[in-house]
Amino acid sequence: MTQQEESNLVSRDAQWREELRKSIPTKERTALPRVKMPELEESYRIKCDDEVNQGLSIQQAVLEARRCLDCPDPGCMKGCPVSNHIPAFIKNIERHRFAEALEVLSLTTVLPAVCGRVCPQEKQCEAGCVYNKMKKPPVAIGNLERFVADFNREVNRHDHIDESRQTTPVPFFGGIKIAVVGSGPSGLAFAGDMAKRGYDVTVFEALDRLGGVLKYGIPEFCLPKDVVNAEIARVANLGVKFEKNCFVGTTLPYEDLHARGFKGIYVATGAGKPRFMGIKGENLPGVMTANEYLIRYNLAHHEIYGQNVMSLKRRRVAVIGAGNTAMDAVRAARRLGAERAMIIYRRGQDEIPARAEEVRHAQEEGVEFLTLHNPVEYIADDKGMLCGVKLQKMRLGEPDESGRRTPEEIPGAIEEIEIDLAVVCVGYLPNPPALTEDIELTRKGMIVVDAESGKSKMPSVYAGGDIVRGASTVILAMGDGRRAAKAMSEAFEKIISNTTLT
After folding, report:
1. What three-state secondary structure class fits 130?
2. Do 315 and 350 form a contact (C-beta atoms < 8 A)?
3. pTM of the entire structure?
4. Where are the beta strands (DSSP E) in 248-324?
5. What whole-number distance in Å separates Cα of residue 214 and Cα of residue 234?
6. Which residue among 14, 144, 196, 499 is buried most deeply as judged by most CB within 10 Å?
7. CA separation for the pair 296, 470 (Å, rounded)
């Protein structure tokens, strides 16, 4: 794409954008109600893994796109960690130019279908929408991003275009080879941006499936695996190569990367090490970490992991925590037949950190919320199996450093409930990299990097995502990958430029 073509796609001053703004009065645009995403009916969806959100139709997407006012200083873009050209892709939807809308998104993101589904838009791009100041629902940016990716994917499928087999010749920048450790969202974002810049990129994945948390941590009813596969195929189409079942630092020693000619390394190994509460009975059979539980659920038909998928019919399940992972776990329990599925959370309903949509879906699906309760002990039956949990009732005190009110125990207020399975979702610790002892880590095992560039203390080693910031969101991890790609590319290009000049 030439600079002129890109400018015509994203510039607010482009003639087509000016004409589109004038075509409908602002008062008429702001009078349009936000389009509601069609969803599966609750009684049906808890019996299957079908995706709950069904996506927008063409008519719905165009109608929602008309609500966008194409602001001269768009607050939505300020809230996007990967700096998507949000008004530009939305205005292309409004004029029915869906391929161009995807081109706009592809300038800044390699995972639009994923981000449109799992990003916390209400806290990021949609939080900056001007409609909030009008006390009206913001433009459904996430739903529109998903529509663009899904529509174009279906068009390619209908036209028998296999994106994984397309080839886009890209001249390798100076023949520089770059290694990416981990194929999760941060690694994919970095790899895609480096490939676009002309580098020879290889992604090394320790497991037998690509995608990291997108495959192992998020259920089908939130993020279908074929969607993830299609997004990874788009990255491969940029020239990125993938090697699975390759654990950098063990099966592939760090030194061997240099021997194979890799000049730069991006570490994106994520945070999959579970965090425990350290309470009595936590090691009882029947107490699981969210990591183990969701891997079993997501790989139900896997030749290894699928051997141990549990049935929860007539069982009582307690999920400890209230983040997005906890919502995924408790909703999965309902689909596995749990008679009673509960979220146990030590703060109040207003403090729940999960996406509002995830919470609503859980409530619709019959999940109970035991807020202001905190587990203090798991109880065993006479066979040594989990049969209950003691809960300390809490109340909210003064705000902590983050501004959330600190939960306090109510003295003597203990209750006991019967459960058959407990899934602990109280956070993750970083997966410690097995690169070299020279890399600097924090006390919690996160790699120390420069906040702006993602560069570590080791030469040509950058890092981002959960291995740097701790367990966080897909989009923040992708933002890290994009910043690191820009910084690493500029560093190499400066070296080459200085070498050429001398």
Report:
1. helix
2. no
3. 0.91
4. 262-267, 273-274, 287-289, 316-320
5. 15
6. 144
7. 23
